[in-house]
Design goal:
2 helices, disordered N terminus, single chain, mainly beta, nine-stranded mixed β-sheet
């Protein structure tokens, strides 16, 4: 399989997911691959210009053939790569997109940059830290609305652009990237951007996924590699009717810091069936100096 196609399939690594069961005899199959769950839109799109969106399934894999509805009445369908190219509406403001048949909406801002801004080639903001297995956003000017027209490398290795516009990129790091500091380089046609450095962290989840009884408490431990600093992590309970995440549906904790850098969460069995918890970094944004 070509490396680009393999990387697109591995977009499923975008969050740590823990799946378990409340009772073995009541165990249900995990959601089927291809079940669309996550819509990715560039944070900003430029009025009248092209942009690319993406849809991920419950396992984080790019999902082809998914219909996306916009609040202005537009509809489109993702192609075989799980993405779709579209032209932004002309009127500035906020537009919402949603996956057909699923609740929830994703917002993006339609902007009308000045001629001077349209001619700029720069990076306005980039995360200071990112997960090796999670997407991250870059904001600037001069990117390509067609995702595949952007070339992004991290540590010299090609990354995947999941969604894009002239002012925003959503990027998935290379599969074989090691934890630590890495340079990020971006080009789009003749536009070449200043190199920025980011810290990429490895997140490894340690938990017992054996059957969980009603009322039983179980600890989830996340190991962080690539830094000894305290890092903010967020756990989200994707099946609150099955198990309770102690602290609420979405819970944030800091890791301990130090050589053994870990964070802990806890779940409690609630009803029969599968439980599903996602854990990801809380973004920290930096603004590169001109």
């Amino acid at each position: 399989m070509p490396s680009r196609d393999r990387a697109l399939l591995l977009a499923g690594l975008c969050t740590l997911l823990l799946t378990g069961a409340a009772y073995a005899e009541q165990r249900q199959p995990a959601p089927a691959p291809g079940n669309p769950r996550i819509l990715l839109l560039p944070r900003r799109i430029v009025s009248g210009e092209r942009a690319t969106l993406a849809v991920l399934d419950v396992n984080g894999r790019l999902a082809p053939g998914v219909t996306v509805n916009f609040s202005n009445g537009d509809h489109l369908t993702t192609d075989q790569t799980g993405r779709a190219l579209f032209v932004a509406p002309l009127n500035a403001g906020t537009i919402f997109g949603s996956i057909a048949g699923r609740p929830g909406r994703v917002a993006t801002a339609i902007v009308m940059p000045s001629e001077a801004e349209l001619s700029q080639v720069d990076i306005k903001s980039v995360p200071r830290i990112a997960s090796l297995s999670d997407r991250f956003d870059i904001i600037g000017h001069g990117f390509c609305g067609d995702a595949d027209a952007n070339t992004v490398t991290v540590g010299g290795q090609p990354a995947i652009v999941l969604a894009s516009s002239a002012t925003s990129l959503v990027v998935l790091p290379p599969v074989d990237l090691e934890p630590g500091i890495a340079p990020v380089q971006i080009t789009c046609g003749k536009n070449s951007f200043p190199t920025v450095s980011m810290i990429f962290l490895g997140l490894e989840l340690h938990a017992d996924t054996s059957p969980l009884g009603a009322g039983e408490h179980r600890r989830l431990t996340v190991s962080v590699t690539g830094t000894t600093a305290k890092i903010a992590l967020e756990a989200i309970n994707l099946a609150p009717n099955i198990a309770d995440l102690v602290g609420g549906t979405a819970v944030r904790h800091f890791s301990s810091g130090g050589p053994e850098n870990t964070a802990r969460f806890e779940v409690v069995g609630h009803h029969h069936g599968n439980f599903l918890i996602s854990i990801r970094l809380v973004p920290v944004t930096a603004h590169p100096a001109p």
